[in-house]
Amino acid sequence: MSMESIVIRGVSLERAQAKVTISGVRDVPGTASRIFGAVGQANLLVDMIVQNVSRTGITDISFTVHKDDVAKAEAALRPVMPDLGEGVTLEATDGIAKLSVVGIGMRSHSGVAAEMFKALSDAGINIEMISTSEIKVTVTVAEGDIDRAANVVHEAFGLGAA
Questions:
Q1: H/E element holding 130?
Q2: I need a labelling partner for 59 at 20 to 30 A (CA). Which of 7, 14, 49, 151 fits?
Q3: Does the structural domain 3-14+96-156 have CATH classification 2.40.160.20?
């Protein structure tokens, strides 16, 4: 059996996360640079980054940080907010966790994300953010749902109990 034939190798989770969302930013070159330049200067570790589709030149950008870094992220972003557009808002939400399915076989198998999303949906677990790479699909869910989410995803991929 080749490594490629093993679609999902495992499920991982990360608790104590927070989502920071900057809404109503101008969708122009340099916006992401200003935001993540400020975050980087504050020495914050950012994991998931999601930018929504622009609507009439305005977009939203969300990212995750450890929940203990929320105040530091907000403080780092306040000085750049006026440069991002009129009516820009900043919102931070803690109480989330990240759940990932990982496997090199995902490169050659379609439907992994759909199967993961269906398992979570069938369990009544809402997905807040989604990020993908060639070998990983990561979602954020309410931290109170993370253990159940890990269990249903383990079951969906035949990995046994979490």
A1: strand 129-132
A2: 14
A3: no
Q: Are 60 and 51 in contact (CB under 8 A)?
A: yes
Give the pLDDT confidence of 111-124 residue by residue, as tens digits: 899 999 999 999 99
- DSSP element (H, E) containing 4: none
pLDDT, average across residues 97-103: 96
Name the architecture of domain 17-95.
2-Layer Sandwich (3.30)
Instruction: Find the mean pLDDT for residues 91-102.
Output: 97
- The amino acid occupying position 56 is T
Nearest to 90 by CA among 70, 107, 114, 74: 74
DSSP helix/strand/coil, 132:
strand
Could you report the per-residue pLDDT of 48-64, keeping only the tens digit for each?
A: 999 987 778 999 999 99
